[in-house]
């Protein structure tokens, strides 16, 4: 195969016709494929079915003797805090256990900051005029949606192979008190799959924000989600912060959504004891507390951090071939053409495909017309606008292996066609 | 026994000495009794243990084929909506299923109204300057705490035997656009135990608030919680609203906290389809969704509204003797003395004791010093301040029968002592 970038006009026109014919043939077959969201396959959910078959007698009481079935313990059970503390390298006193959605904890944290303020802040965010939030992009669309809906101006920060552009983060955070926070997925980042380098983590910890109430939203969603045995080390941000005296600047989040069930998991917020005490008081007004039986269910099933890692090996065995399928297809079909590059992640749920500028929206539309749903082009960017229109998030876990093979065949043809249309239009 | 109100000074002094001796004798015995919260007894929680022993295979999929274990269905499963719709006399399209805490849904509803606004409102509540909320009192302390924490001025509305003083509700709501809502526990009210009359419900439905974004927070927490077979009828507020075209004015809340588990239940918000569509859109940013497996667990266990009512008969069999114990003690020990009156509820979780003015704080302190924790005096009032200092909320469900008998013996002596101290101080 010859790189499209080396083809002359005639070759490109011929190739366009050939690829168009391939696309038309594929599109003529009715199909319903979905690579739009980082959604576990049912086979992965089956891995946690034993959690639904636990002896009810083991689910009623915590080690401290509290009745998990009744009111009480608004910040969660001790054993569930211990499990997450172990996973995140923190103490149980750094943990509040939430409900089944960590996104809900993040939204709540922003909403509480707006309405009531954060620890150490002089007044609620919502009483300080127009506000801004830093959004490393490409990033997680639902993060950006929270701060967009709640009225923040979203500031796009370019992503690099080692994390967000920290010079820019520092510049914004340290010069402008209306910048109240930054969204981060520090490990196996959504969607680029990279893990922040130790220098990046240290640079976050060393920030001296202009605002006295700035918070780093550290969404460690993929902390145990390596799928190929080559786990990447993420420096514990609280360790880095301790050196700087900046522990109060970080809210960390995690959940079991992609460990047990995305529809019935457990989530946590982790923070300094100052923050935890402050949030606990605010939360005392907000809720009676979250589901403690489900917390015990998770602890009985997963046991401890080692148990979680064992369990994740079973997910890895399922996920790894999915990523191999995607990467093999791209390597064989796209790499020689010079029209795109992409990450080769060791964990997480996504491959981030970066094609020629101006081709992402077209490629997604071509796929959709042929029966394959992808994340809308632009979604990983603030306001859904990809300035280059070249990033496509591929989420390979949900389709079955057969569906995924079909989906990637179609995707590669659509990606070629979109590239050729752009190249021939020049 | 002679009424204290008919005793002369000498008789009162003698009685004070006698009761003081009784109190000292009781207080000399160490004890740890708690009638402070409307908390089910473990025996009630045992009634729902079968819900934790369901076949896992029945918990994975909804009737529509959705995988409850995975992401999706942010507003809940169809069958759980149908169950609550049936209970509340509404349609499934009027229901959003939440997490385990209905208080959290209420807080969220106020927070969203502040930050984002409500259906039909011209702008978010939070952009309209100082706000007020109507608080029928005595009422539920956690309701008042939500609006106090979120910055509202709390307006106390006297409760009557048929519900809140509706002339006053109407006057505030219809004259002042900064009045944004009203808290209601319309059936077996917390703590007075009364059910709003049909006229009261119709008066709510007929409100023409000055604000275009006023909401009635209708916390139907005790909708199926009759314990003596004499269930009181509550007019469906949405039926009343339909006649007035005011369906969009109501948010109704309910939960299984006192049906299954206070620590692992399911909650709902019920509202007009206009409201539900509007809230669904706002919630789409807030959360991935709540625990769907727990929704299915509840549906499999409770089955339907008839199943819920059957289940509640088992709670009633447990609760009824508790209330009889409280009421018998008050009838025999306090009634002849003319120093208090109280409600005799057919459902709910509370007896509201109204003693002589100025005695509630003292009575609660006397109980506490002798080892019995009661809800702090004043708690059922805005800002925790009972203007008469005469209301005490008695929550009889949590103590065992033996503990309850001890607690009521102590309570009656403390109530007498507090009354006598006041009467002799005159």
Q: How would you briefly describe this protein structure?
A:
2 copies of one chain form a homodimer. The first copy, chain A, has 426 residues and is of the alpha/beta class.
Task: Write up this protein.
Two copies of one chain form a homodimer. The first copy, chain A, has 426 residues and is of the alpha/beta class. Chain A folds into two domains: 4-45 and 310-425, Aspartate Aminotransferase, domain 1 (Alpha-Beta Complex), CATH 3.90.1150.10; 61-303, Type I PLP-dependent aspartate aminotransferase-like (Major domain) (Aspartate Aminotransferase, domain 2), CATH 3.40.640.10. Chain A is built from 13 helices and 13 strands. In chain A, strands 2-9-8-7-6-3-4-5 form an eight-stranded mixed sheet, with helices on both faces. In chain A, helix 8 (237-244) links the parallel strand 7 and strand 8 (250-255). In chain A, helix 1 packs antiparallel against helix 13 (401-425) and helix 7 (198-205) crosses helix 8 (237-244). The model of chain A has no long low-confidence stretch (mean pLDDT 97). The interface between A and B is large, with 52 and 52 residues.
- Average predicted confidence as pLDDT of chain A: 97
Number of domains of chain A: 2
- Our measurement of the CA-to-CA distance between the termini of chain A, rounded to an integer number of angstroms, reads 22 Å
Query: Strands across the major sheet of chain A, in which order?
Result: 2-9-8-7-6-3-4-5
CATH topology-level name of the largest domain in chain A: Aspartate Aminotransferase, domain 2
User: How does CATH name the architecture of the largest domain in chain A?
Assistant: 3-Layer(aba) Sandwich
Structural class designation of chain A: alpha/beta
């Amino acid at each position: 195969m010859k790189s499209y970038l080396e083809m002359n006009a005639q070759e490109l026109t011929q190739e366009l016709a050939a690829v168009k014919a391939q696309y038309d043939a594929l599109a003529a077959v009715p199909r319903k494929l979905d690579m739009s969201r980082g959604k576990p396959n049912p086979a992965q959910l089956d891995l946690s079915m034993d959690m639904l078959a636990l002896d009810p007698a083991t689910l009623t009481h915590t080690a401290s003797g509290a009745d998990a079935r009744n009111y009480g313990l608004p910040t969660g059970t001790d054993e569930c805090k211990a499990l997450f503390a172990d996973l995140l390298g923190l103490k149980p006193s750094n943990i509040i256990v939430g409900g089944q959605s960590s996104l809900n904890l993040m939204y709540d944290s922003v909403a509480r900051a707006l309405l009531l303020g954060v620890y150490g802040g002089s007044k609620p965010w919502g009483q300080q005029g127009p506000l801004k939030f830093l959004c490393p992009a490409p990033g997680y669309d639902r993060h950006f949606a929270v701060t967009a809906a709640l009225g923040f101006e979203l500031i796009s920060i370019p992503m690099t192979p080692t994390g967000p552009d920290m010079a820019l983060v520092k510049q914004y955070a340290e010069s402008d008190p209306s910048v109240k926070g930054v969204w981060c997925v520090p490990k196996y980042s959504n969607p680029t799959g990279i893990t922040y380098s130790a220098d990046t983590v240290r640079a976050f910890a060393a920030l001296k924000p202009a605002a006295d109430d700035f918070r780093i939203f550290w969404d460690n969603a993929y902390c145990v989600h390596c799928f190929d045995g080559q786990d990447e080390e993420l420096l514990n941000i609280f360790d880095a912060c301790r050196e700087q005296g900046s522990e109060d600047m970080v809210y960390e989040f995690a959940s079991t959504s992609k460990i047990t069930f995305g529809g019935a998991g457990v989530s946590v917020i982790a923070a300094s004891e100052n923050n935890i005490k402050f949030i606990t008081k605010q939360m005392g007004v907000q809720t009676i507390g979250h589901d403690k039986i489900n917390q015990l269910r998770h602890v009985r099933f997963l046991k401890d951090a080692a148990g979680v890692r064992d369990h994740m090996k079973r997910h890895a065995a399922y996920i790894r071939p999915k990523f191999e399928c995607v990467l093999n297809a791209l390597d064989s079909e796209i790499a020689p053409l010079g029209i795109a590059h992409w990450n080769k992640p060791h964990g997480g749920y996504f491959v981030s495909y970066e094609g020629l500028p101006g081709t992402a929206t077209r490629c997604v539309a071509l796929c959709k017309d042929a029966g394959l749903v992808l994340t809308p082009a632009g979604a990983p960017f603030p306001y859904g606008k990809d300035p280059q229109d070249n990033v496509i998030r591929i989420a390979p876990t949900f389709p079955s292996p057969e569906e995924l093979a079909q989906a990637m065949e179609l995707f590669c043809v659509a990606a070629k066609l979109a590239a050729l249309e752009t190249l021939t239009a020049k």
